[in-house]
Amino acid sequence: MKKKLKIAGLLTLMLIGGCGDLADEDQTNEGLTVHDTTDIKQLVHDYSIGKLKNDTASITSEQLIVTHADASETIYELPKDEFFVSFAPYINQTHPCTNHSLTGCQGELVDEEMTVRIEDKNGNVVFDEKTKTQANGFIDFWLPKNEEYHMTVVMDEKTATLDFSTFTGDNTCITTLQLG
User: Fold this and answer.
1) Contact 132, 72 (CB under 8 A)
2) Is 54 left (phi over 0), alpha (psi -120 to 50) or beta?
3) Residue-level pLDDT at 39
């Protein structure tokens, strides 16, 4: 049964990937193309894991901005009620960052397993799982927008905590989680 579900899931992903343009609505504005897309999370994920390599992509609190090889840009609007944020826990080395570069940032801890717990300002658990950093050393999350959160990250016997928020204009790249 599990094998059938995995096969069905893979077929669905292949079908989605083969459907061509993700855009529902396109608008051209002074050399920029603005898209509303139904599968923005998959597009962000594909850039984040390095599946899409010919362009550069960065993400703000409201938009995914893709710069193509010819220097033209395509802008995708993010969901109005969700916020993308990417964390790079580290031990020795980090870098300053505000808006996450999906195709250019590299964190220190690549493919490391850690426990991540995120609570909202009322103490409700939003995420509490063991997870691994991606090949770029980051862990990506889509969280409800306009909230305040507290995060705890534990790797081996090292711990880091951080308070952050998901309001318009907040950072989508957080590189201040030093495990110690």
Assistant:
1) no
2) alpha
3) 87
